[in-house]
């Protein structure tokens, strides 16, 4: 049970427990009692030094890590870009050479290897290029459509796959480029893979040999080895992580990858650590209760309006678990925020108005 306190409002958050993965005894002992980026670095030291695989050997591993025993339960290749959880897939792949790319001209031609964090950003270096935790088998054509675009919420889709994954302009606050959005079933999976990547490679993400994020608008790195990703991207990943809890598929895949390369994704084993590292709780210490901000409509479905007597310099939105899910710097007395992508529930606003901080809450319908 976690207690969060905001302006005399008490929010009690009960975290659901996830079936425990097969974590070796004592595996995470060195992370006990830590929080924030110190926890992240401790986890990095635990999962570092895994067995490095060759790129060609990955193809033979996917029958151990990515077999569909959850949706159609037919033993076909489970592809997060084409799987349709609630109905039969439009097409299925096997694990043999006949289903692997080669060349492709359209969706359903073949599958190849997808780097959830694009390998172009780290110039195909090892060990990240062959890290099974972040290299998944996916439809070759959909993989190509995703390209190096960051993940995010799509506003207007320019292309949609057979299972509903889509590419289009960003509706995620803080980013105006093209993004790729998987279906809801796999958003948490992808978020936890990217949090793993930020942890496992925290010493490498600032390397001068990697793609410079300042010169590539698709690169979500922020140039630091603590937060690792830009604010807008962290907000997307936190939202997806909190919306889509750890599944049995992820637990089984984590165990299978551990058996092959001998390290684990800590955020599958302990999903609460995501918010302890990247979430940012609010404190009443700096809140000025004399600052008044009108928040309407409340409850809200899509567009939330804020009105104050002085400029609202910064807006941060938190889930009641303390995870920051959205941020912006409007610098205006009248602010309109699109919250349509947020899950239903209670949210907390941390507002900076003319140098003073205050807090409000709202309900997303």
From TrEMBL:
<protein>
    <submittedName>
        <fullName>Endonuclease</fullName>
    </submittedName>
</protein>
<comment type="similarity">
    <text>Belongs to the EndA/NucM nuclease family.</text>
</comment>
<keyword id="KW-0255">Endonuclease</keyword>
<feature type="domain" description="Secretion system C-terminal sorting">
    <location>
        <begin position="295"/>
        <end position="363"/>
    </location>
</feature>
<dbReference type="GO" id="GO:0016787">
    <property type="term" value="F:hydrolase activity"/>
</dbReference>
<dbReference type="InterPro" id="IPR007346">
    <property type="entry name" value="Endonuclease-I"/>
</dbReference>
<keyword id="KW-0378">Hydrolase</keyword>
<dbReference type="Pfam" id="PF04231">
    <property type="entry name" value="Endonuclease_1"/>
</dbReference>
<feature type="signal peptide">
    <location>
        <begin position="1"/>
        <end position="21"/>
    </location>
</feature>
<dbReference type="InterPro" id="IPR026444">
    <property type="entry name" value="Secre_tail"/>
</dbReference>
<keyword id="KW-0732">Signal</keyword>
<dbReference type="InterPro" id="IPR044925">
    <property type="entry name" value="His-Me_finger_sf"/>
</dbReference>
<keyword id="KW-0540">Nuclease</keyword>
<dbReference type="GO" id="GO:0004519">
    <property type="term" value="F:endonuclease activity"/>
</dbReference>
<dbReference type="Pfam" id="PF18962">
    <property type="entry name" value="Por_Secre_tail"/>
</dbReference>
